[in-house]
Amino acid sequence: MTKDEKSGALGRNEYVRSLATGLDVLETFTPAEPRQTLAEVARKAGVSRATARRMLLTLVERGYAYFDGRVFELTPRVLGLGHGYWSGRSWHELLQPSLRDLSSRLNESCSAGVLTSDDVMYVSRVHTHRIMRIDLGLGTRLPAFATSMGRVLLANLSEDELLARLKQMERPAFTSHTVTQPEELACAVRAVKDEDVALVDQELELGLRSAAVPVRDAHGRTVLAINTSMSAGTESVQDTRQRVFPALKECAGHVETMIRSLGKDLESLTASGR
């Protein structure tokens, strides 16, 4: 749909062309082209140089852009646009678009969770088909030691804290594959820390395989894990790793950018997911 067609969809008195043009100008700035000349902005936005100049100088005047005399660049203030809306959203609402995209790419159920005591708690989920006996929903808790998200979150602990936590928590053998010894679990978590990914194969439930990656805040702390789960018998572990980890990491990167740009209060978000 062209710009004229978009404006035609609204009544003459409803469509604000100057606002639309301003948004077009803003959208010309990308991570690949963060600094642009007036001519570049005008060409990409499809407007005259005079119009682009008015829009850009207005952004400069309002503090949303910087001009050094030759090129224009957006300032961090643009991150505040819409902040009032997003700052009140829960993990579930914030993560749904990213998880839906991930689920669509992988054709698998995808979830996000946080560490709560000895459990991983689900704070967002996109469901495709049920492959577990239990129905996973927001607030569902599963033992961290036997899940991919749990091991990603446990990998954020110090060595001493990790071993102490593993020794004191309950570690039932859910299947014949479940690792229950603290020392073996600590070794598995260290491997997660080294590889920055976790894959758990039939330790929580026979026939279930899951893979997870961390999401970190601006200080490098793991605050969230994102995972996908699938039937264990459809492909090899190596095929699963090659298929899902690139998409999981890309999704985690998008989420990291989002929570950092929004300056989210991570503690309040975690609490709101409960």
Please report which band the strand proportion falls in: under 5%, 5-15%, 15-25%, 25-35%, 35-45% or over 45%: 15-25%
Shape: elongated
Sketch the major β-sheet.
6 strands, antiparallel
Question: Segments where pLDDT lies below 50 for 5+ residues?
Answer: 270-274
What is the H level of CATH, i.e. the homologous superfamily of the largest domain?
A: GAF domain
Radius of gyration computed on alpha carbons: 23 Å
> In the CATH classification, which architecture of the largest domain applies?
2-Layer Sandwich
| N to C succession of SSEs | HHEHHEEHHEEEHHHEEEHH
- Provide the spatial order of strands within the biggest beta sheet: 6-5-4-9-8-7
Give the structural class: alpha+beta
- Top CATH class of the largest domain: Alpha Beta
Mean pLDDT: 85
Helix content: 40-55%
Topology, number of strands: 9
User: What is the end-to-end distance?
Assistant: 42 Å
The CATH topology label of the largest domain is Beta-Lactamase
Summarize the structure.
The protein is of the alpha+beta class. The chain is built from eleven helices and nine strands.
Question: In words, what does this structure look like?
Answer:
The strands form 2 sheets. A 6-stranded antiparallel sheet has the order 6-5-4-9-8-7, sandwiched between helices. It is α+β, with helices and mostly antiparallel strands and 274 residues long. The protein has helices at 3-8, 17-27, 38-45, 49-61, 83-86, 91-106, 148-154, 159-168, 182-195, 237-262, 266-272, and strands spanning 35-36, 65-67, 72-74, 109-116, 119-126, 141-143, 198-201, 208-216, 222-231. The longest helix is centred in the C-terminal third of the chain and has 26 residues, at 237-262. The model is unreliable at 270-274 (pLDDT under 50). The two termini are 42 Å apart.
